[in-house]
Amino acid sequence: MNKNVKKLLELQEIDNTSREKELRIDKLKQRKDNLKEKIEGLKEKEKEREERLETLKEKSEEKNREVDELQDQIEKYQKRLDEGIISFKETEALEEKIKHSTDRMEKLEDEAIDIMMKIDKTEEERAKQKTETKKAINENNEEIDELEEKKEELAEELQELGQERERVVQKIPDRLIDQYDRLRSTNNNPVVKIKNGVCQGCQMSVSKNTVKQARDSQGIATCENCSRILYVG
Ligand SMILES: [Zn+2]
């Protein structure tokens, strides 16, 4: 095999390994983004829960205030009734008002109890979910750290491969590197084997002359069909 072709094969190996590592880095980045999104989602849910609880507490206070107001109102009506210096008609009207206010107050008290129960339940859930959220966030953060470490390792390996590539490139004539780079822009395997007279890049037969050329240690043989650089292994 032509020694330049041998070097090109070495270069191809480096380039493919680098590409594989780059793809792995991309995947790690994607996973990291997903985890970060998940964390944001969990925080958002927690915030929503807090807001829900806040609203319930406000509602509860409002109901209690209304109950107090009605209580005062009823007491006032009752006082006027007890003083007794009013007409029968007025008495009837006051009794009606007291009854109406009492009914309303009872209804409000029931509602206030419902809200209190809801608050208790939500607070219970909140405590449980807070622990779960914290655990999930910690786990996600741990995984993010691991991903980051792996990414750094890969980046270092990539850098080493880049240096190795430089060394190999220096040993190959420029015009061959150009030819290789051109082919590489469309194919991951610019240098392929001829097997049983067939180019292993495009699977087409090559001429006997090309096979002969590929065997020759002097020249560079290329596929008549796909232009890949050929060798006979
Ligand atoms: Zn071919």
The shape is rod-shaped
Could you estimate the helical fraction of the residues in percent? over 70%
Low-confidence stretches: none
The ligands found in this model are:
zinc ion
Q: What is the number of strand segments?
A: 4
- The N- and C-terminal alpha carbons lie at a distance of 8 Å
What share of the residues does DSSP label as strand, in percent?
5-15%
Under CATH, the topology of the largest domain can be stated as: Helix Hairpins
C-alpha-based Rg, rounded: 41 Å
Order of helices and strands: HHHEEHEE
Structure description:
With 233 residues, this protein is mainly alpha-helical. The protein has two domains: 160 residues, Helix Hairpins (Orthogonal Bundle); 53 residues, no CATH class. It has four helices and four strands. The protein has a four-stranded mixed sheet with strand order 2-1-4-3. Helix 1 packs antiparallel against helix 2. The model has no long low-confidence stretch (mean pLDDT 94). Bound molecules: zinc ion.
Short characterization:
With 233 residues, the protein is mainly alpha-helical.
Task: Give the SSE layout.
Elements (H helix, E strand, L loop, with lengths): L2 H81 L4 H83 L3 H11 L6 E5 L2 E2 L8 H8 L5 E2 L6 E3 L2
Parallel strand pairs: 1-4
Antiparallel strand pairs: 1-2, 3-4
What are its keywords?
233 residues, mainly alpha, Helix Hairpins, 4 helices
